[in-house]
């Protein structure tokens, strides 16, 4: 076996990765994620001003980072900087998506002329459930409609919403929890 091959094998075994002809110490994604999770969340919370959105975007950031981990080059910047760039990109994507969603909803709402006495979400819902649904954000109602009413799976719902599967699942869980609390409070009030 040639000497260069032996050197390459021993460097790889020592936790080094060759990037552009230079060996760089390889850090596991889990260690990087654990070290920078709070900073990325704080950054996204500052950008969005909303804890729920920041949580969703943090999970999306680390999902994207994991998919791109092999392309991370520590010579170009720190892992924290790299993660913040991905987080910023995820936040900008979110803001653009929300803007498009709001325009769609405003256009649809303007086209609708629903009488105040008509049920908003359909016949057969209790007034408590109708009220609870109205208390949810449009995004939360949208994910409930896709997952519960349309019976779409998580992947399909996420694609329709333009968000990650994790964010979709988190949004659904949060919305159902809010619904449960609101209905419980209305029933016992």
Descriptors:
single chain, 189 residues, mainly alpha, Rna Polymerase Sigma Factor, Chain: A, Arc Repressor Mutant, subunit A, 2 domains, two-stranded antiparallel ribbon, 71% helix, elongated, disordered N terminus
Describe this structure in words.
This protein has 189 residues and is mainly alpha-helical. It has two domains: 10-113, RNA polymerase sigma factor, region 2, helix turn helix motif (Rna Polymerase Sigma Factor, Chain: A, Orthogonal Bundle), CATH 1.10.1740.10; 115-189, Winged helix-like DNA-binding domain superfamily/Winged helix DNA-binding domain (Arc Repressor Mutant, subunit A). It is 71% helix and 4% strand. The chain contains eight helices and two strands; from the N terminus they run αββααααααα. The protein has helices at 3-13, 29-48, 51-68, 79-111, 127-135, 138-149, 154-161, 165-188, and strands at 16-19, 22-25. It has a two-stranded antiparallel ribbon with strand order 1-2. Helix 3 (51-68) packs across helix 4. The termini are far apart. Residues 1-15 have low confidence and may be disordered.
CATH architecture assignment of the largest domain: Orthogonal Bundle
**Strand residue percentage:** under 5%
Describe the global form. elongated
CATH topology of the largest domain: Rna Polymerase Sigma Factor, Chain: A
Strand order of the largest sheet: 1-2
Alpha-carbon distance between the two ends: 79 Å
Provide the succession of SSEs. HEEHHHHHHH
Largest sheet: 2 strands, antiparallel
Q: By helix and strand content, what is the structural category?
A: mainly alpha
- Poorly predicted regions are 1-15
Approximate helicity band? over 70%
Q: How many alpha or pi helices?
A: 8
């Amino acid at each position: 076996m040639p000497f260069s091959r032996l050197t390459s094998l021993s460097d790889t075994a020592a936790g080094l990765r060759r990037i552009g002809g230079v060996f760089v110490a390889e850090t596991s994604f889990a260690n990087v994620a654990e070290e920078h999770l709070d900073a990325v969340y704080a950054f996204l919370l500052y950008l969005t001003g909303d804890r729920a959105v920041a949580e969703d975007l943090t999970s999306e950031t680390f999902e994207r980072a994991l998919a791109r981990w092999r392309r991370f080059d520590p010579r170009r910047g720190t892992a924290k900087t790299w993660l913040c760039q991905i987080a910023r990109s995820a936040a900008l994507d979110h803001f653009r998506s929300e803007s498009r969603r709001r325009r769609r909803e405003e256009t649809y709402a303007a086209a609708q002329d629903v009488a105040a006495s008509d049920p908003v979400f359909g016949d057969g819902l209790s007034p408590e459930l109708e009220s609870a649904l109205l208390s949810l954000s449009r995004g939360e109602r949208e994910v409930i409609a896709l997952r519960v009413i349309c019976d779409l799976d998580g992947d399909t719902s996420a694609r329709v919403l333009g968000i990650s599967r994790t964010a979709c699942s988190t949004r659904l869980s949060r919305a159902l929890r809010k619904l449960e609390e609101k209905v419980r409070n209305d029933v016992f009030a």
